[in-house]
Design a protein that fits this description.
five-stranded mixed β-sheet; mainly beta; 22-stranded antiparallel barrel
Length: 660
């Protein structure tokens, strides 16, 4: 570990002495995309029409493959830390999976929709994508698009305070190998070929493993993850399949640190899409997708002096099926219509329990030496979880008009209607006006409403940790934004002033019941507001710097960070060397947890980056670092007795990539 850290510092110092020369080939050009091209990158998740960052009717951040590599991160969720208004930290819940902070809200309920290639990952039992898919390797990613703010007008539930769409690589032939500290090693292979003008195939496989850092609580945070993806395009037909599996044992699970903690989750996705019509005016597609999510987890609930520890957790399976038809049409007057209809069925098909204490006769968890199972056992037909086997049926329709009112002014008017059978119905409107003052200055006024449907864990859970509340209503948010966008050939900057009206927020609360610690409730209505700033300056082809800053005017919900910032600099040292350094800064957090304990974490900074060496046109080496100086810090989680979850320590790795 010390050797890798010293190597990182030494390599950056030595590389800085290499003289600058002109970039040679496009393959070796680490900044082959010009600044103007970066500003004109096409994004469509925010409007279903092709837009640039200056014209899109949403507040967005986009990261290309090269930008992501320069950050030095390994998991897609970590890219959130470089997005204004968003952060990602570890929490206490189900294997210490990543938890999202979005626009002053820090709740464990899936308020950010995560998609892979436009297909949702969030599911119906916990709501959070990261519970079932906590690790998405950077190596398979081509681009990540973030909507900062409401997205329900296009994507329905969970597109509440933000959307993260991960676009994976489909046109690469490459092999990547990685070794690092804390027992890290892994490999990624990507392949694509075209059999004819009508037929093409791609496939990706990635494996990651690490032993983990040692923590004062006597545990490590090991990781084992596999990601598989494949696709076939044949004329107008697209077939896609994806599988991932992640294990996060030990560390923290259900608020308990223990070497006995276990967590494994996997997802299987298959999808088919057919293009009926595709011409200059009309595009019409129909698609069907099916996803199966599995989780097998157990966390330390209580430790005893005279009997073995009590561990408990879910053995759950959910499925998602979706039929969708969508179209885009351009009228003679240049108005553009994007519309679609959708039927979705989200079902929890298994609701078992994993426990160290169980009575086969009464079919109950009984903490008594007579019922100790000599370890953790899985009980699939667990009567107390029977109510979790629930099916959500959702009928949806959406439409949006893009209206070029004049050369300077473009209007967007849209809405989506979602009818969740026996739960709730929601209408999510959206309005935006984009006004180009001149080629450098653009002003946007945006309004949108979003919602999140409660999930089965919130509605029907029944265990020693939480008890559900079947009377829950959907959460909703109304967001108004004023956006200023500035761009020249060297500089682009954005300032966003936002105001959120939050209604019927579902929060976890202590319960007076002797059977569980917590329950869920539509506990509050509130408002929050703030400002988000970001900018990129590219002074030359060799050097660029990007900075972000977020400031909320009210205290965040559940003690998220009130202020935070990031700084990323990239420098082409020669035609073969690039160095990138980044800094994450988070303001202090001081709060009392629900248990009454006082949590205080001073403001802190985390340093990371990468050093990239292009060996030749087909291969490269990269040294990546996260938390380079091993900063010790805690993040707040309301369910911990002391409110504290240990932050990640230094992560240093060496990557080799060969393109073929």
């Amino acid at each position: 570990m010390k050797l890798l850290r010293c190597s990182a510092l030494f390599s950056i110092a030595v590389a800085s002495t290499i003289p600058l020369v002109a970039n040679a080939t496009d393959e070796q050009d680490l900044f082959s995309l010009s600044f103007e091209d970066l500003l004109d990158v096409q994004v469509d998740i925010a409007s279903k029409t092709s837009e640039t960052l200056s014209s899109v009717p949403s507040t967005m951040s986009v990261f290309s493959r090269k930008q992501i590599q320069a950050l030095g991160v390994d998991n897609a969720y970590e890219v959130m830390n470089f997005v204004p208004g968003m952060q990602s930290t570890r929490g206490d819940w189900v294997g210490a999976v990543p938890k999202d902070h979005a626009r002053g809200v820090y709740l464990d309920s899936g308020n950010v929709l995560v998609m892979i290639n436009g297909e949702r990952v969030n599911e119906s039992s916990f709501g959070k994508a990261s519970v079932y898919m906590p690790y998405i390797p950077i190596e398979v990613i081509e681009k990540i698009e973030f909507i900062r703010g409401p997205g329900s007008a296009l994507y329905g539930s969970n597109a509440f305070l933000g959307v993260m769409n991960i676009v994976t690589s489909k046109e690469r032939n490459a092999l990547q190998l990685v070794v690092g500290n804390i027992g890290r090693y892994g490999a990624t292979g990507q392949f694509n070929t075209s059999f004819s003008d009508d037929t093409s195939l791609f496939a990706s496989i990635s494996y990651d493993q690490k032993d983990g850092e040692s923590y004062p609580q006597g545990v490590k945070d090991p990781l084992e993850a596999i990601y598989l993806e494949a696709g076939v395009d044949y004329k107008k037909l697209k077939l896609r399949a994806r599988y991932n599996e992640t294990s996060l044992d030990e560390f923290l699970n259900l608020a308990g640190y223990s070497t006995q903690n276990q967590h494994t989750s996997d997802n299987t996705f298959v999808g088919i899409k057919y293009n009926w019509v595709n011409n200059d005016k009309l595009k019409l597609d129909s698609s069907y997708s099916y996803t199966k999510h599995n989780i097998s987890s157990a966390g330390l609930i209580a430790a005893f002096d005279d009997i073995p520890d009590f561990l408990l957790g879910p053995a759950w399976q959910t499925t998602d099926s979706k039929f969708e038809t969508e179209l885009s049409y351009q009228f003679e007057n240049q108005w553009q219509l994007a519309a679609g209809i959708e039927y979705a069925e989200a079902k929890q098909v298994e609701a078992g329990v994993r426990t160290s204490y169980y009575d086969d006769e009464s079919m109950l968890v009984i903490i008594d030496p007579a019922y100790y199972q000599q370890g953790i056992v899985t009980v699939m037909d667990f009567p107390e979880f029977a109510s979790l086997k629930y099916t959500f049926e959702t009928y949806s329709a959406y439409g949006q008009l893009k209206i070029p009112y004049s050369d300077a002014l473009t209007l967007f008017v849209g809405a989506r209607y979602d009818d969740v059978k026996d739960i709730d119905s929601k209408f999510s409107p959206r309005l935006a006006a984009v006004y180009v003052i001149n080629p450098e200055h653009t002003v946007k006024v945006q309004y949108g409403e979003s919602f999140r449907t409660p999930v089965t864990n919130e509605l029907f859970s029944n265990d020693d940790v939480t008890v559900g509340n079947p009377s829950l209503r959907s959460e909703s948010v109304k967001t108004t934004e004023l956006v200023w966008h500035y761009q020249t050939s060297e500089l682009q900057a954005n300032a966003v002033l936002l105001y959120n009206e939050l209604n019927d927020f579902i929060n976890i609360e202590p319960t007076q019941s002797t059977d569980a610690l917590f329950t869920f409730a539509n506990s509050f209505n509130t408002q929050n507001s703030g400002i988000e700033l970001d900018g990129t300056w590219q002074s030359s082809k060799e050097f660029s710097v990007t900075g972000t800053y977020t400031q909320y005017f009210e205290d965040p919900i559940n003690a998220s960070f009130k202020r935070f910032a990031s700084l990323v600099s990239r420098y082409n040292l020669s035609d073969s060397w690039q160095v990138s350094l980044n800094l994450l800064w988070r303001d202090k957090v001081e709060v009392s947890s629900v248990t009454g304990a006082h949590f205080k974490q001073s403001a802190y900074s985390l340093v990371g980056g990468s050093l990239k060496w292009q060996l030749n046109a087909n291969s490269q080496l990269m040294l990546k670092a996260e938390n380079l100086f091993g900063k010790k810090y805690n993040v707040f989680d309301p369910r911990m007795d002391n409110g504290a979850v240990a932050g990640t320590s230094e992560d240093l790795s060496l990557h080799y990539q060969f393109n073929f």
